[in-house]
Amino acid sequence: MFRRRPEARPAQGGRLVEVFVAGKPVQVPEGASAAAAVLLSGAPAIRTTPVGGAPRLPYCMIGICFDCLAEIDGVANRQSCLVPVAPGMRIEPQVGARAARIEDAA
Amino acid sequence: MTASGHAMHDAIVIGGGLVGAAIAYGLQRQGLSTVMLDEGDVAHRASRGNFGLVWVQSKGLGAPHYQHWTHASARAWPQLAADLLAGTGIDVGLHQPGGLHFCFSDDEMAQRDALMGQLRREAGNAGYEYRMIPAAELRDMVPGLGPQVVGASWTPYDGHASPLHLLRALHAAFQDGGGLYRPNARVTAIKAAPRDFAVAIGSETVRAPRLVLASGLGNADLAPLVGLSAPLRPERGQILVTERTRQVLALPTHVVRQTEEGSLLLGDSKEDMGFDTLTQTPAIMRAIARKAVQTFPWIAELNIVRAWAALRVMSPDGKPIYDQSERYPGATIANCHSGVTLAGAHAGLLAPMIATGALAPDLSPFSARRFDVQKAA
After folding, report:
1. Cβ contacts of residue B126 below 8 Å, gap of 6+?
2. Which chain B positions have a beta carbon within 8 Å of A77's beta carbon?
3. Which of A51, A77, A105 sits opposite B144 (nearest CB)?
4. Order of strands, edge to edge, in the sheet holding B256-258?
5. I want to staple B43 with a disulfide (CB 3.0 to 4.6 A). Which of B2, B39, B118, B329 is the partner?
6. pLDDT by residue (tens digit) across A26-56?
7. First to last CA, chain A
8. Model confidence over B116-157: pLDDT tens digits?
9. Mutate: best of B301, B305, B306, partner A, most A CBs <10 A
10. How far apart are the first and last CA of chain B?
């Protein structure tokens, strides 16, 4: 569904970074956002909404719509369009509301 | 319409917030043709800033009538929520599992115990059940409690609901029952006579033998027009809202509650900022966040997605005002800062009293005459 524009980034000289979207390896240009990786991966959705459970993919790509929420390297509810990729990054779907991480003090 | 072109009703309610809407809904259910006049978006709308507690504990120390009234409202709430759901399909998200008030030192626990014990003594036959719960036991009731929490007081009466869904449901049920809702209806004049009130909205006039003033802080200006007084001041409260999380808090608390949709609401601030709801006070916001994290350290990791300020409608002693005009029988005022907690009482108990014409004697301590100071000769 989504392809890189060939002229957008130099194919030569521009380095590719491998990240994992829902476990699947994806090659993306260095400096791209995690949301771009999500779109390139062909994943059907990266999050489901907390109340209605509707599937969502990145939409606005400028930090406004929150439809690109993902769990990135273990941190829930990150706006993937605002996070640059890093080698080996793990981008997992945000399924519904996040869980609060509670460590028992007792 | 009467011959003179005035729309004639059985009752007029000025105010379309939680207090006005609950009373108007209750009056319409009593079979009274009721019109609700709602000022518009320039109004302060305390209802839309409400934290959403149905809260009984710690209210009404030294004022058993207030404790009874609050308690009665909590008891009336399940019926209200059920009626609204059946009538409108709107679930206002009522849960009454009891509520927690946290203490952070042994001294605080002892003081809280003394306060709760006093409330129980003042409750009389109505009863007042409470427990002081030590931290070790609390940890089984709520997850991830902070190490500084020493314990909490608990009563079975407390709960919470969605203020916004409640407001929408009251409006819907009122109109479904035949009530007339008038938005953008700023009252420009009131002509009062015994059991005959003419309320002007610009060039238009509505008339009824009953008039209820439920316009929050606006009552301060309107009450004198019907021979009453409402000495009210705004007290600002702020709320921080986190991103939604999966359900984690089974009980509401006085500083944190989790909504039906999963957001955590953090609150419990008090400031005197006049009518200003826009100027941010970072010190207050920090204090709210710090208290929440002190109670539940895991909240620190959650993103804050919204914050707002709203104005509580405060009388000089913080208790509600319910009063009826002696000079102009038929006129009633209703004011409180607990539009959610008291919605059950307003719809189910107060409205029938207004319909029949007289407030019950046990509401007489709520008269604003309590603020009248005898002038020395």
Report:
1. B67, B68, B71
2. 243, 303
3. A105
4. B256-258, B264-266, B233-242, B304-314
5. B39
6. 999 999 999 999 999 999 999 999 989 999 9
7. 50
8. 999 999 998 889 999 999 999 999 999 999 999 999 999 999
9. B301
10. 51
